[in-house]
Each structure stands twice: as C-alpha cells, then as structure tokens.
Design a protein that fits this description.
Number of domains of chain B: 1
Largest sheet of chain A: 2 strands, parallel
Radius of gyration of chain A: 20 Å
Strand order of the largest sheet of chain B: 6-7-8-3-9-10
Oligomer: heterodimer
CATH architecture of chain B: 3-Layer(aba) Sandwich
CATH topology of chain B: Rossmann fold
Number of strands of chain B: 10
InterPro entries (chain A): ABC_transp_permease (IPR001851), LivM-like (IPR043428)
Membrane topology (chain A): Multi-pass membrane protein
Strand order of the largest sheet of chain A: 1-2
Distance between the termini of chain A: 33 Å
Largest interface: A-B, 18 and 30 residues
Largest sheet of chain B: 6 strands, mixed
Structural class of chain B: alpha/beta
Keywords (chain A): Cell membrane, Membrane, Transmembrane, Transmembrane helix
Helix content of chain B: 25-40%
Number of helices of chain B: 9
CATH superfamily of chain B: P-loop containing nucleotide triphosphate hydrolases
Shape of chain B: globular
Strand content of chain B: 15-25%
Order of helices and strands of chain A: EHEHHHHHEHHHHEHHHHHH
Distance between the termini of chain B: 44 Å
Structural class of chain A: mainly alpha
GO cellular component, one term (chain A): plasma membrane
Strand content of chain A: under 5%
Main location (chain A): membrane
Shape of chain A: globular
Chain lengths: 354, 247
C-alpha cells in the first residue's frame, strides 16, 4: 500500500482512497475532526445540538457494527437490532434489579451480546443468502415477543433506569448529564469505527474475512477456517451492537421492547450501511450521519414516520439500481450508475442470493 | 530461480494413499482405494457419483478417512486437517479455480502465503509466480474480478503456488470456464508441471484432460476399475467406452 506523506490535496476522492487503506496521509485532517468532536460541548453546543450529535454518533456506530457482518462478511443480517435490544435490556436489568453502576452493566451487556451471538451464529451461519436473513429476522422477532412476556424485562411496561450521573460508576464533576452522555457515545462510536478500521482494513483478519466472502471454497483451500472466521465476525459485530444498546438505555433511561427491539432499528442499520457503501470504513460513517439527519428532518417537517419510511424505500431502490456500492462507490468511480444489470447482480452476489 | 525441468519431478515427495475407506454419515462411498501421485499429471476419471470428489477431499483432509493411510514423502498425513495439509505442501484448487474478486491480484497472491511469516520467502514465491505467469505482472493492482477468465485461472494457480506446495489437488479446474478457454487452462497446468509440481486432477472433460495425463485412475462405484498410463488405457477400448464415453 502506497502512502503519500505530507500532501493534503483537497480532492474528495482522496478521502475515499484511504478507505481502501492506500492513498494520502489524512492523519492531520482526522486529527482536526477528533479535536472538534472532543471540544464541541465547550464551543457553545447546547442540549439540542448535543442530542442530535449523540444520535449521529450512535447510528454511525450501529451502521459500522452491521457493516462488519453485512458488508465485510457478506451476510445479510436482519436480526442485528436484537443485539441492540439485548444490550439495552441487560444494562437496564443490571442497573435496576442488581443496582449495578452503568460501567459494569455495560460490560455485562457486551458479554450477553457475545454469548447470544455465539449461540445464534453457530446454527444460522450455516445458512446463506435469504435463508440467513430469514433466520436472524425470526430470532429478533422472537426476542421482542419474549421481552414483552417476561417479568424481568418489565413486560409491556418496560424498565425505567436511574437518570443521574451518580449511577455512572465513577464519581464525576457536576456537569450537565448530556455532556457526559455525549462523551460516552463519542468514545463507543469512535471505538467501533477504529476497531473496524484496524481489524478489517489493516489486519490479516480483514483479508481473511473478505476472502471468505468473495469465495469460501478458495479461502478454505488456502487453509483459512471459514466457519471460525464467520463466527468471529458475527460475535464481534453483535457485541458492539449490544454495547451501543446499553449506552442508549442509559441515555434514554427507559427501555421498552417495542422501542429497543423494533425491527426498524435493524432496517436503519442496513439502509445506512447500504447507502454509505457496504464493506468500506467510510460508508457507514457517511450513511449513518446522513440517514439519521434525514430521519430527524423528516420528523421535523412531516411529523409522522410515514414520509420517512417512503423516502427510505425510494432510497433503497435507487441504491440497488444505480449505486450498489453506495455513496463511496460513486465517489471512487467504481460504480457505473448506468449499468443497472451489473449493479443488481453485484448486490445479489454479495449477499449470496445466487 | 531458474526454470525447473521435469527431471526434478522424480525427486518430489510422493503422495501415497492406501486402502482408503470413507464416506458421509455412515454411508460408505470409497471401499478401499489406493492411488498415488505420479510425476506430472495424475488424472482420476469416472462417472458422476463414483467417489472422485470424495477421494480428493479425503486426500486434502476435508473428509476424514475411516480406514487406510495417507503418506506424503516420509510423513504420515492421514489425520491432518485441511490447513495442516496446506502447511505440509499439498495445495487444493477449488472447482473452477476461483479468485477473491474484490481484492487485487497482489492481495490474492499474498493470501496464498498467509501462513508464511518470513517476508523474503513470500517475495521469492511471488517472483516465481510472476515468472510462471508473466501476464499477471501488469495486473497486480487490478481487482481480480476485472480479469479475463484465463487470467483469473492464472491468479488461482499462482495463489496456490504461494502456499509453497509441491503437490496440487484439483477438482475440475475447468468448471465454469468458456469452452474456448479450457485448453488454455490446461496449458497453464503444464506450466506447474514444468516447474516440477505433481498434480492430481479430477476432470469431467476427459478428452481435454487426456492430452496432459501422465497416469490415469478410473473410479466407479467407490472402487478402482483401472490404473495405468494413457497408452495402456488406449488398449482398453471397452473401459474407454464404458466409463469415459469415448468410442
């Protein structure tokens, strides 16, 4: 991989090249972004702006989390939202029933996410294409029904979490709660993105994952244990979703099955990764920020969800027909928007529908 | 690295499988088959369902052997896992070759040697691959899916060479190739043989494969029906017609 040091050309495509691990040195630009993100609560951002940013960060993290299994591994996971819900409920139960502080509760959320992911991944990862999507979708629906029935999850009345920073786990100076929540989401979301970047773009592990996605037989012929690789990706991606779910529970302070286990959560993650660009590091960042803001704007101007859902449907159609590699694919020039037949096949192949 | 001659093939470790009995879920497919890798290309022919693929999978460790033994040179390899087989010098080429389409040719080749820690060894092998398939030199940074069918075959053969194998197991390398490319694909196999490799090849396209076969086994219903050189097979017209459909 070539790296051109010291040059910082203002071309947008050069940002995208770094998504593939080569191209220009963008450490300075990313450094400025990082400083801005850390400084924003002190630069006049109020509660409203911070809440919007918390949403943007969370959805970037969730889209990136889905991107690990959906984009890099090519498994159309329609049950990913279940892990977000599991993380939210485990955090809630740990904080309410066990009176644990937030930090250990969040660790528990991650552990439960990993255990569930392993147990579900072992049988379902044997399936391919639409069958994997159906199985994981069924699992997520089952989890929602279960959460509505059980006592420990609060059933149909949900769980209410402690709403002060005293429950955080470490004594903190007296600052508005939203600032702390912003930093919690910032650390988790950036953590997921950096983890994805290091593991999937700069590590042998990522090459193995892509090899298994592109051609499982060929990967195994080289001695790559495809079953193991797929399980590792699935557990990793589900665990990150569970941790983000735990942070969301502490942020909203109320956990209800119809909300944190809503199938729209999975749909959002899929759309964000798809629109941004599957299997790229930048795709979910672009898609997550864009779609979340679109969601908020549509709520602002149209009120109900109806318009938003119609917009999403239209967007999916456009992406499938004209931009199978999302916005990133269009920016790098790898996608030929006019070649509809090849665009359609590209996605079907990616998710092993044929 | 100079071009190796066929004479070197005599000194390569020989893969010897004796009395292989195996199958799936209690259903016996092979009833005691003995084969070995001969210098050059060893072809296994037989009708559908004869156990050819199962035999190959037992040789590379994918299907565990119920009884019998597999030796590679002086090493016992009967119970090795597929990745241990790759490590001991036996590479498998999947059906139709198969490349990692979204990765570059260079990345495809590097993945072939992912178990090798010494970068100089990797570079040496890469140089060897480019010497064998000079057409790949200009394509190193191209996505593998953008290559022609013939070039993709070079990538998958090159990737297998990167494992450092001396023996190659191939299950229908020509599968899925355009008919006009099948002969080219077999020419590429000759390149490997010229460099001293031994190949065990399963192929439906008997006529094309006979052209480069040095030794032939015919398998039917889980038992060997014939073994010998192509000229010996040529004298057995009934076998040719019965199992290979050649009149």
């Amino acid at each position: 991989m070539s790296k051109r040091e010291g040059s910082l050309p203002p071309r947008l495509e050069s940002i995208v090249y770094t998504a593939d691990g080569d191209g220009y040195d963008w450490r300075l630009a990313w450094g400025i972004v990082a400083v801005l993100l850390v400084a924003i609560p002190w630069l006049g951002a109020g509660t409203f702006e911070l809440r919007i940013l918390i949403g943007v960060l969370m959805w970037i993290g969730l889209a990136q989390s889905w991107n690990m299994i959906g984009g890099y591994a090519g498994y159309l996971d329609f049950g990913h939202g279940a892990y977000f819900g599991i993380g939210a409920f485990v955090t809630g139960i740990a904080m309410v029933s066990l009176s644990l502080p937030f930090l250990p509760a969040l660790v528990l959320a991650g552990i439960f996410g990993a255990v569930f992911a392993y147990a579900i991944g072992v049988p379902t990862l044997r399936l391919k294409g639409a069958y994997f999507a159906i199985a994981t979708w069924a699992f997520a629906e089952a989890m929602r029904q279960l959460a509505l029935l059980l006592d420990i999850t609060g059933g149909t009345s949900g769980l209410t979490l402690p709403s002060t920073m005293a429950a955080f786990g470490i004594p903190l100076p007296d600052l508005p709660r939203v600032i702390y929540l912003y930093y919690i989401m910032l650390v988790l979301s950036v953590g997921v993105v950096v983890l994805t970047y290091v593991l999937f773009e700069h590590h042998e592990f990522g090459y193995k994952v892509k090899a298994v996605r592109d051609n499982e037989d060929a990967a195994e012929s080289l001695g790559i244990d495809a079953t193991r690789i797929k399980r590792q990706v699935y557990v990793l991606s589900c665990t990150t979703a569970a941790v983000l779910g735990g942070a969301y529970a502490f942020y909203i302070t109320f956990v209800h099955p119809q909300e944190v286990l809503d199938s729209m959560i999975t749909a959002q993650m899929v759309i964000m990764a798809l629109v941004g660009g599957l299997g790229t590091i930048l795709g979910p960042i672009i898609g997550g920020a864009l779609i979340f803001l679109l969601d908020r704007l549509s709520a602002l101007y149209f009120g109900s969800d109806t318009m938003y859902i119609s917009l999403m449907g239209l967007l999916i159609m456009l992406v499938v027909l004209f931009a199978p590699d999302g916005i990133v694919g269009l920016l790098t020039g790898e996608t030929d928007a006019s070649d509809i037949r090849s665009n359609l096949n590209s996605l079907l192949e990616k998710f092993k529908f044929q | 690295m100079t071009l190796q001659t066929n004479a070197d093939a005599e000194t390569q470790p020989v893969l010897v499988a004796e009395d292989i009995v195996t199958g799936y879920d209690g259903h016996e497919v092979l009833h005691g088959v003995s084969i070995q890798s001969h210098p050059g290309v060893t072809c296994i022919f037989g009708p559908n369902g004869s156990g050819k693929s199962t035999l190959l999978k037992s040789l590379n460790g994918v299907v565990p052997v119920w009884s019998g033994s597999i030796q590679y040179g002086d090493t016992e390899v009967t119970d090795l896992s597929p990745d241990e087989m790759v490590g001991s010098g036996i590479a498998t080429l999947p059906q139709g070759g198969g490349v990692f389409g979204t990765m570059t040719v260079a990345e495809n080749l590097s993945l072939g040697a992912f178990t090798v820690d010494d970068p100089t060894v990797v570079e040496e092998r890469k140089a060897e691959v480019l010497e064998a398939f000079p057409a790949l030199e200009d394509k190193l940074d191209a996505k593998a899916k953008s290559l022609s069918g013939g070039q993709q075959m070079m990538v998958s053969l090159g990737r297998a060479m990167m494992t450092g194998a001396d023996t190659y197991l191939m299950d229908e390398p020509s599968a899925g190739l355009a008919p006009t490319l099948v002969d080219d694909a077999f020419d590429l196999l000759e390149t490997l043989v010229d460099r001293g490799a031994r190949i065990i090849l399963i192929e439906q396209n008997v006529v094309a494969a006979l052209r480069l076969a040095d030794y032939i086994y015919i398998l039917a219903e889980g038992d060997l029906q014939f073994e010998g050189t192509p000229s010996e097979l040529g004298q057995q017209e009934d076998l040719m017609e019965l199992y290979l459909g050649i009149e």
